[in-house]
Amino acid sequence: MKSIRYVDALNDHYTAMGNPPYRWTVNESAPLHRLDKPLEECSVSLLTSGGVSQCSMPAFNADARNDHRLDAIDRDVNATDFQIHDSYYDHSDADNDINCIFPVERLRELAALGEIGKVSDRLWSGFMGRIYNRSKVLEESGPDFAAALREDGVDILLAAPS
Question: What global pTM score does this model have?
Answer without folding.
Answer: 0.82
